[in-house]
TrEMBL record:
<keyword id="KW-1133">Transmembrane helix</keyword>
<feature type="transmembrane region" description="Helical">
    <location>
        <begin position="59"/>
        <end position="77"/>
    </location>
</feature>
<keyword id="KW-1003">Cell membrane</keyword>
<dbReference type="GO" id="GO:0004930">
    <property type="term" value="F:G protein-coupled receptor activity"/>
</dbReference>
<feature type="transmembrane region" description="Helical">
    <location>
        <begin position="271"/>
        <end position="289"/>
    </location>
</feature>
<dbReference type="GO" id="GO:0004984">
    <property type="term" value="F:olfactory receptor activity"/>
</dbReference>
<dbReference type="GO" id="GO:0005886">
    <property type="term" value="C:plasma membrane"/>
</dbReference>
<feature type="transmembrane region" description="Helical">
    <location>
        <begin position="236"/>
        <end position="259"/>
    </location>
</feature>
<dbReference type="InterPro" id="IPR017452">
    <property type="entry name" value="GPCR_Rhodpsn_7TM"/>
</dbReference>
<dbReference type="InterPro" id="IPR000276">
    <property type="entry name" value="GPCR_Rhodpsn"/>
</dbReference>
<dbReference type="InterPro" id="IPR000725">
    <property type="entry name" value="Olfact_rcpt"/>
</dbReference>
<keyword id="KW-0812">Transmembrane</keyword>
<comment type="similarity">
    <text>Belongs to the G-protein coupled receptor 1 family.</text>
</comment>
<dbReference type="Pfam" id="PF13853">
    <property type="entry name" value="7tm_4"/>
</dbReference>
<comment type="function">
    <text>Putative odorant or sperm cell receptor.</text>
</comment>
<feature type="domain" description="G-protein coupled receptors family 1 profile">
    <location>
        <begin position="40"/>
        <end position="249"/>
    </location>
</feature>
<feature type="transmembrane region" description="Helical">
    <location>
        <begin position="143"/>
        <end position="163"/>
    </location>
</feature>
Length: 308
C-alpha cells in the first residue's frame, strides 16, 4: 500500500509541458494532422455513402473503420491540443476514466474491424463463388456490431480494474491523455499487479487479432499464387495492398507502445504519438490514394460539382 492516500478528484496531464519551448510548434503540427485526418475519414464515409459502386462489404468495413477512427481521435486529440495552449491541464477522475474507456474501446474496435477486413478479402479471393452469400449486408452489420461490443467489453474491464480503488498523490499523469499505464501507477492499491493484468489483456487482444490477419493472408497468398495469369495475380494483390499497409503501420506502432520493456526507458508521451496521431492520419490517406475505386468515386463527385 502506498502512503499519502488522499482522495483525488482530478489529475494533471503533464503531457508536453516538459517541452515548453516547442509546445506552439507541436500544436500547429498536431492541429494540421488532426484536420487532415478528420477530412480524410469524412471524405471516405461520404464517398462510400453516395457512390453506389462502393456499396460492397469491403467498403462497408472501410466506412466502419473511418467512423471508428474519427471517434478514436476525437477522444484524445482535441484535449491534447487545448492542453498545448493552456496552463490548466486538469482532468477530473471521472473524465479520465471515460477518456481511457473510450480510447481503449475504440482502439480495440479498430483492431477487430481491421481483422474483419482481412477476413472479407480472404472470402472474396479464396471463396469467390460463395462470397455474395456469406457477406450479406446483414452479416456485415452484425460483424461490425460485434467489433464494437468486443472492443468495449475489454475496455470496460480494464478501466474498472484501474479505477476500482483510490489514487495517491502526486496526481501527475505523465502523459498527454489518460493512458492506462500512466494512470494505474497512481493507484493506492497494488499497481504492479493491475498494470500487468491490463497490459496482458491489451497485448493478447493486439497479438490475437494480428495473428488472425496474418493467417488470412497466408491463405490469400497460397490462393493467389495458384492463379495462372500475372494480371489476375496483380488484381488480387491490389485489393489487399492498402489494407495490408495499414495493418503493418497500425500494429507496428501499437506494439512499440504496449510491448516496450519497462526498463528500456524513453518518454512514453513521445512514443505514443505515432500510434495516436500518425496512424489515424496515414490510414485514410493510404485507403484513398492507393485505391482506384475511391479515386474514381472522388473524380465523379468533383465532376458533378463542376458541372453544376
Amino acid at each position: 500500500m502506498k502512503i499519502n492516500q488522499t482522495v483525488l478528484k482530478e489529475f494533471i496531464l503533464v503531457g508536453f509541458s516538459v517541452y515548453p519551448q516547442v509546445q506552439t510548434f507541436l500544436f500547429v503540427i498536431f492541429f494540421c494532422l488532426y484536420l487532415l485526418t478528420l477530412s480524410g475519414n469524412l471524405a471516405i464515409m461520404g464517398l462510400t455513402w453516395v457512390d453506389r459502386c462502393l456499396h460492397t462489404p469491403m467498403y462497408f468495413f472501410l466506412n466502419a473503420l473511418s467512423f471508428s477512427e474519427t471517434c478514436y481521435t476525437l477522444t484524445i486529440i482535441p484535449k491534447m491540443l487545448v492542453n498545448l495552449l493552456t496552463k490548466n491541464r486538469n482532468i477530473s477522475v471521472i473524465g479520465c476514466g471515460l477518456q481511457m474507456c473510450f480510447f481503449l474501446g475504440l482502439g480495440g474496435t479498430n483492431c477487430v474491424i481491421l481483422t474483419l477486413m482481412g477476413y472479407d478479402r480472404f472470402l472474396a479471393i479464396c471463396n469467390p463463388l460463395r462470397y455474395p452469400l456469406l457477406m450479406t449486408n446483414m452479416v456485415c452489420g452484425k460483424l461490425v456490431a460485434y467489433a464494437w461490443v468486443a472492443g468495449f467489453f475489454v475496455s470496460v474491464i480494464q478501466t474498472s480494474l484501474i479505477f476500482r480503488g483510490s489514487f495517491c498523490n502526486p496526481n501527475l499523469v505523465k502523459h498527454f491523455f489518460c493512458h492506462m499505464r500512466a494512470v494505474v501507477r497512481l493507484s493506492c492499491l497494488d499497481s504492479d499487479l493491475t498494470e500487468f493484468i491490463v497490459t496482458v489483456m491489451s497485448v493478447s487482444g493486439l497479438m490475437g487479432t494480428f495473428l488472425v490477419i496474418i493467417l488470412t493472408y497466408v491463405f490469400i497468398l497460397s490462393t493467389v499464387l495458384k492463379i495462372p495469369s500475372a494480371e489476375g495475380k496483380q488484381k488480387a494483390f491490389s485489393t489487399c495492398a492498402s489494407h495490408l499497409t495499414v495493418v503493418i503501420i497500425h500494429f507496428g506502432f501499437a506494439s512499440i507502445v504496449y510491448l516496450k520493456p519497462e526498463a528500456s526507458g524513453g518518454d512514453d508521451t513521445v512514443i505514443a504519438v505515432p500510434y495516436t496521431v500518425i496512424t489515424p492520419f496515414l490510414s485514410p490517406l493510404i485507403f484513398s490514394l492507393r485505391n482506384k475505386d475511391m479515386k474514381n468515386a472522388f473524380r465523379k463527385v468533383l465532376g458533378k460539382k463542376f458541372l453544376e
